[in-house]
Specification:
Elements (H helix, E strand, L loop, with lengths): L13 E12 L2 E13 L4 E5 L6 H8 L7 E6 L4 H6 L3 E4 L11 H10 L7 H8 L14 H13 L5 E5 L7 H16 L3 E5 L3 H7 L2 E6 L2 E6 L1 H7 L3 E5 L6 H5 L4 E5 L5 E5 L2 H10 L7 E4 L2 H8 L8 E2 L5 E2 L6
Parallel strand pairs: 3-7, 3-8, 5-6, 6-7, 9-15
Antiparallel strand pairs: 1-2, 1-4, 8-9, 10-12, 10-13, 11-12, 11-14
Helix pairs in contact: 3-4, 4-5, 5-6, 8-11
Length: 325
């Protein structure tokens, strides 16, 4: 890919070191990034997960040089973000954006390519993004899925080594989502690095090599979906609680998380056998179900709001399957 040889120096694609960013809202200060440390290696596809307000958009803004940290540093391919973006080393597809009227997809991609020092050939960009078939149609006349693929083509036009996708499949139907991910996969197969934020946990689990979970401005988990599920208690035990309190359940052997929502008790546990035996001793086995914790279970456990009544006991940062850099 254009520009790769210049930067094959072993440096990671993305490095956040102790990044803090605060905003004043309604008379109080909010830490949207609270000491973020993150390394994304070249060639990785990384999903960024978190509830609304967790700090994902702030992290993306800092990464692309749209904002600056109060403290700490951000490096994009070894450079300050604004320099890397100007050099065409990073492309982005953000949530905000409206179709440009009376401009075809080909014209738009050609224009964006002309702004960068080492762009991809226009025909190659259109093909990689899956836009060739309707490249000469006006962007404002395309379907939602087609328009989103054009936006992806625009992100690729400068010949980037890294693309950042903010909620790339929001509001798309199943077929359009699958088609877009096929195009993202082609970019990754060429050695490109992908960082995407999403609320679609199934997409993160399926398409990312690695998942980073943010909550309240901090990274609370980092690993594959399976690893994150195991890290917060790989077993899931659910039953009718029969009057037992969350505190009583949290003290049972193996239990790392308690959720009492919907009249059912759901226990995340790292020792399902020990937990079930203890429940039986309490006479609390009613409509018992035992299974494995999913990525969704882990995500809910890691990002439980403080007013849910859930009892959570997890490390501040759960880094699994990652070596130090």
């Amino acid at each position: 890919m254009t520009g790769t040889a210049e930067n094959e120096d072993g440096r990671p694609a993305v490095v956040f070191t102790g990044v803090v960013k605060t905003y004043g809202r309604a008379g109080r200060t909010v830490r949207a990034a609270d000491g973020v440390d993150l390394v994304v290696r070249r060639g990785e596809t990384v999903a960024l997960l978190g509830r609304n307000g967790a700090g994902k958009s702030t992290a993306i803004g800092l990464l692309l040089g749209l904002d600056t940290p109060d403290s700490g540093t951000v490096r994009l391919l070894g450079r300050p973000p604004e320099q890397a973006v100007r050099a065409g080393l990073a492309g982005a597809m953000l949530q905000d954006g409206r179709p440009i009227p009376r401009v075809t997809a080909r014209e738009l991609v050609r224009f964006v390519a002309s702004l960068h020092p080492r762009p991809l050939p226009v025909a190659e960009t259109l093909d990689l993004a899956g836009v060739t078939a309707y490249a000469d149609r006006r962007v404002d006349k395309l379907s939602g899925g087609q328009a989103q693929r054009v936006r992806f083509a625009v992100a690729l036009a400068g010949g980037p080594e890294l693309v950042v996708l903010d909620e790339p499949t929001s509001a798309l139907d199943v077929e359009a989502r699958r088609s877009l991910w096929e195009s993202v996969g082609k970019f990754a197969e060429r050695g490109g690095t992908v960082l995407f934020s999403t609320h679609q946990l199934d997409e993160a689990d399926r398409y990312a090599d690695r998942i980073v979970v943010m909550d309240r401005g901090r990274i609370v988990a980092d690993g594959s979906g399976e690893e994150i599920g195991r890290s917060v208690g790989g077993g899931l035990v659910s039953f009718d609680p029969a009057g037992l309190t969350p505190s009583e359940l949290a003290s049972l052997p193996g239990v790392v998380h308690v959720d009492m929502a919907g009249g059912r008790a759901r226990l995340r546990t790292d020792d399902s056998d020990a937990t079930v035996v203890a429940l039986a001793a309490l006479g609390a086995v009613r409509n018992l179900l035992v299974g494995r914790a999913t990525l969704e279970d882990a995500f809910l456990s890691l990002t439980a709001p403080p007013d849910t009544g859930a009892v959570v006991d997890v490390p501040a940062v759960t880094r699994v399957g990652q070596e130090a850099v």
